[in-house]
Design brief:
Blueprint lengths: L14 E2 L7 E2 L7 E6 L4 H12 L10 E7 L2 H6 L7 E5 L4 H5 L12 E5 L5 E6 L3 H7 L19 E3 L5 H14 L2 E2 L2 E5 L2 E5 L4 E2 L1 E4 L3 H23 L5 E3 L2 E6 L5 E5 L12 E6 L5 E3 L2 E2 L7 E2 L6 E5 L4 E3 L2 E9 L2 E3 L1 H10 L10
Parallel strand pairs: 3-4, 4-5
Antiparallel strand pairs: 1-2, 3-6, 6-7, 8-21, 9-13, 10-11, 12-16, 13-15, 14-24, 15-23, 16-22, 17-21, 17-23, 17-24, 18-23, 19-20, 19-22
Length: 354
């Protein structure tokens, strides 16, 4: 059994099932306050605790605060229905989540409790379920999301200007416009393989740069102007660059990319740092990077400049509200990452299976 989390402890991540999602990744909840409710198995006590929560239901909107009820008894699981926005149920049939969070001990005894996590998924407060009144009263005083740490937060990102000259930016945009772009999907692991999926998680179109001489020039600029700054800031020696891709987020379809991490599938586990080089920063509104674990602040590199961040950070591209955002979006990794990529190649589904 894992001990219950104390204030400041990092909440363990897990994948589980909800009534509406067979593969819910808990780490995607970062960016707002999260209430975990480890429910009692006794039906009468369960109903009493749920009734206490309902008196505070209006606070749970999936914007500032979300609630997740962890259920272990089949009677509760069979009737559970997610109530969006704000309320979901984790179907903990094997009790793995309960053990992970210390809500079930080695003797099989349950320890029902409330656990409040901050937007970075670290413990803020907890209370036994028989002491619910004071706990729920404290939710009325939760700081605004941007103030949850008590001081302004800066995401651990690096912004480097003047990686590409204006002429290179213009040529990349022209290359995209000559092609028109293809719909861009997301990578997900399905039945042990990584597949590309087109859905509403992202609205973007992409073009790959195929001209080898052009690619060589881009690679040279990144090697000379960007990699030394990455080594200085992150003590990471990049040796590999993945994809020469120009992306377009268009206000016409509200171009966006919802919160995600860039290294969570078999086919992307090798990625270490993401690079986003804006090609026309003055010509669009919206379309900025945001890192929800570090508050609502957004980041926008200048035209020709790069923002660099670790692929394990949750991030999103906010919707473009005017114009088109063009960006060059490679990933970098090292020799160890190359070995991981090679080992996982067999898990990447061919395009016709995506």
């Amino acid at each position: 059994m894992t001990e219950r989390l104390a204030v400041g402890d990092v909440a363990p991540w897990f994948k589980t099932q909800t009534p509406t999602n067979p593969n819910y990744y808990f780490n995607t909840t970062a960016g707002h306050y999260v209430l975990l409710a480890f429910m009692p198995a006794d039906p009468s006590v369960h109903a009493e605790r749920l009734a206490h929560f309902r008196a505070h239901r209006s606070r749970f909107d999936d914007v500032k605060l979300s609630a997740f009820f962890v259920l272990t008894d089949e009677a509760s699981i069979s009737t559970a229905k997610d109530r969006l926005p704000g309320v979901r149920f984790f179907l903990d049939r094997d009790r793995a989540i309960s053990r992970l969070y210390g809500a079930l001990d080695g003797t099989g005894a349950h320890h029902p409790h409330w656990l409040l996590l901050d937007p970075s998924l670290r413990a803020m407060a907890s209370a036994p379920m028989d002491d619910s009144g004071a706990f729920f009263a404290s939710l009325a005083d939760l700081p605004a999301l941007e103030d949850y740490a008590g001081v302004p937060l800066q995401a651990p990102v690096l912004i480097v200007p003047r990686v590409f000259e204006p002429e290179i930016c213009a040529r990349l945009v022209a290359t995209y416009q000559a092609h028109g772009g293809d719909p861009s999907g997301v990578m997900r692991d399905v039945d042990g393989r990584t597949v590309g999926i087109l859905d509403d998680f992202k609205k973007r179109r992409d073009v790959m740069i195929e001209d080898e001489d052009f690619r060589k020039g881009l690679r040279l600029r990144i090697t000379r102007r960007l990699l030394p700054e990455i080594a200085k800031a992150f003590q990471f020696e990049a040796t590999r660059l993945e994809r020469y891709l120009v992306a377009c987020y268009d206000a016409a379809d509200g171009g966006y990319f919802r919160p995600h991490r860039d290294n969570e599938t078999f086919a992307t586990a090798h990625r270490r740092f993401a690079v986003s080089i804006n090609l026309n920063a003055e010509e669009f509104e919206g379309g900025d990077l945001r890192f929800p674990e570090f508050g609502p602040r957004t980041y926008r590199p200048p035209t020709g400049g790069a923002v660099v961040f670790c692929c394990s950070l949750q991030h999103e591209a906010t919707p473009v509200t005017r114009g088109r955002r063009y960006a060059f979006l490679p990933f970098i990794y090292d020799d160890e990452g190359a070995r991981i990529r090679e080992a996982n190649l067999s898990r990447l589904a061919p395009p016709d299976q995506a």
